[in-house]
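call fold(seq) -> C-alpha cells
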Amino acid sequence: MRRFAGRRLGAMLGAMLGMTGVATAQDWPSRPITMVVPYAAGGGTDVIARAVAEKLQSRLGVGVVVENRAGAGGNLGTTTAAQAPADGYTVLISNIGPMAVNPSLFKNLKYDPAEVLEPVTLIAKAPLLLLVHPSVKANSVAELIALSKAQPEGLTYGTAGHGSANHIATALFELMAQTNLKHAAYRGAGPALNDLIGGHIPMMFATLPSAIGHVHGGTLRALAVTTSERAPALPAVPTLTEAGVPGYEASGWYGVFVRKGTPQPIIDRLRSEVATIINLPDVRRNLELEGAQPIGNTPQEFAAFVKAEREKWAKVVAQANIKVE
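ret:
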C-alpha cells in the first residue's frame, strides 16, 4: 500500500509540475526580456540584436532590453546566458565565436555551449570584409599580402576577441595566403572598428553589416569579401578567391539561443516571432542593404548548422595552432 501511495504521489507531483510548465509557457512573456549580446556595442552582433529587439518588444508587448556583456571572446556573455533560468526571459544573441570556435580554443570554459544552450533560430548570415585604413598602401589583396610579408612581425589586425569571427577568418586567411599577421584582441568588434577608422591598426576582417557604412563613407577601404560569391550590397568588391586566395570561404552569422530546459512552446514562439520579424519588409530590406541574408530556420536546422560550423572551425584552430595566451 505504502509503495502504491508513493507511486501515486509521485505521479500527481509530476502532473502538477507539468501543468505548471505549460502554464508558464502559455503566460510567456509576462515581464521584460533581457537580450544578452556577448560583445561591446557597435559590432555586427549588436546591430542585428537591436534591430530584432525593437520589433520583438512591440510584438510581445513587453520590454526587451539589450545587455552588452563583452569579454573573454564572448565567453562572459555566454556564461551569463548559461546561468540564467530556463524560462525564456534571458535570450542570447550570439555568433560563430562563442558557439562554434571557443569550445576548441578555450580549454577551461566554464560551460560547453552545446550542453547548456538551446539553438532557437539562425537570424542571418553575412560575409566578412577584408578592410584596411585608407592610409595603408595596398589597393588589392596581393598588395596587402606583400606589404605584410615585408614587415618583421606582419601587419596588425583587430578582432572582437579570441575566437571571434574576425579572428578565425583572419587565421584561415593566414593559412591560405601563407603570411603572418599580428593579432590585437579587443572587447568587441565596435572598439576594433573604431581603432581601424582612427588609423591605430591597419587592417581587419569585419562583418559586412557593421562596416558597410564606413566603406560607403570612404573611412575604410574594402579589399575583398569572404564568401564564395560577391556581396550584392558591394558588387564591385571581389571575393578572396577572385583576389588571389582560391578556395577561401567564411561567413559571419547571428543566432538566437536560450538556456537548455526552456519549455518547447516558448522556444517555438520565440523562433516564430524572430522569423516573422526578419521577414518584415523594412527589416529584411535593411538586412539585405547591409549585406546580411535573413534565414529564420527551425531549431533543429539551426542545431545542425552550429554542429557543422563547430567541426569546421575546430580543424582551422588545430591547423593554425591558435592558442589563447
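The mean pLDDT is 90.
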